[in-house]
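Appendix B, example 12.
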Amino acid sequence: MAGAGLTFTYAPFSHWYLTPVLLACLFWLLARKATEFPTLLGFCFGLGWFGAGISWVHVSIADFGGLPLAGSIGLMLLLCAYLAVYPALACRILVRVFRPQYWPLAISFVWLVTEWLRSWVLTGFPWLSLGYSQINSPLAGWMPLIGETGVSVLLVMFACTLSQTLPRKKLLISAILLLTLYGGGYLTGLHQWTTPNSKKADVVMVQGNIKQELRWIPEQDIPTMSKYWALTELHWDADLIIWPEAAVPKLEPLAVDFLSELDQQLAATGTGLITGIVNYNFESENAYNQLISLGSKNGEKQGHYAYPHSNRYAKHHLLPIGEFIPMEDWLRGLAPIFDLPMSSFSRGDYQQTNLTASSLRLAPAICFEIAFPRQIRANLHPYTDFILTVSNDAWFGRSHGPHQHMEIARVRAKEFGIPVLRATNNGITGIIDADGQILAQLPQFEAQALRAQVPLYKGTTPYARFGELWVTILSLLAAILTLWLPRSDKYLS
């Protein structure tokens, strides 16, 4: 129940103040059942956390996976059980290695390691990391310094302390820590790490609202491309136009005529456009989920598109099942979900050149890549103007998945002090300022174009400069300290 309750701390509910309370419940139970079943406690907490938190995955499995209800529920449980392994591992290490009175210090490094594993194993799935729940809380002020990862560490340390101080009525310790973390976050949040310069970009983002079941039907290629063209026609004079992930449903080598015509139209007004498209190499038989730039480049009023030009980005972090099939030789053919269209992509490089459109430079992330801050950081440069993330959340219907996706994008803006442009097929399309606040957004499930003047920023944040270096060092030192400190039979002795 405590794990499932974490769902209400994330968007669209955003009850951020519940996070430390629910985590404290876990550590309180661990302290009282430490010698019995810490791994099972952690696993059950994780099963509730992910079972409720990413329940929206069931929508895509049930509606588009072609499995019966029992099969889709079983696959969903299997995914959540896998993710629950990581909090189970954290609880087991905490109980078996460290003495209870030092858990508040030790949990920082233990949680850091297990969450890193979750973001890395099988290409990683770092969704619902604890820090995302705090984008609307005073703790968000720490994000430009230590990132979402650092905020997650602060949360587990605070919650673990609460689980030991409140039952013993040591309220002063709890109050001091509360004021230090939340008051310090509020005061730090008042500082502007990056500042807008005198320039603004005229940005348009197009939301086509194409139904998922129509996206890969060949007969729908022309209607889909015509719809995006029509939604864009009133905005040829903008600096930058963005279409979402795979907005052009044809394979790029087969869509060259359409792209060349679009390139010339954009060049006539000095406009740059970035669109998602699938590139397929017929010789190597490799497919890539890509973004390409068309129209004006570096402010020149001439097109620059010619297949396969270098002004493109290929997705690096591929989604298991959706974009690549683990153990493909065994799983292909077992069920329709393992034979979805466009489910066998090749990976792009971890670091790639920023996209250039008009005179703007953008660091791209496709779909759930926005949940990987280390990858975003590796592709940011002093000249980067915006972070660009495109997605197609039509897979998840009217669930809370798209809201969580937008929340993650807000955290990236806060961490790096740079605006994030988020274009999606059916919502939530929006523009996020450098402080993580939404400047403008479109309603879901409507075909519209969003246009706004977005300021360009200068400067950098400590997190953009150092990443998770200081969090890792301090957490490791805290863990080493707990092994060195003297033994005691009393908590907080």
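The chain has two domains: 2-192+467-484, 196-460. The longest strand covers residues 194-207.
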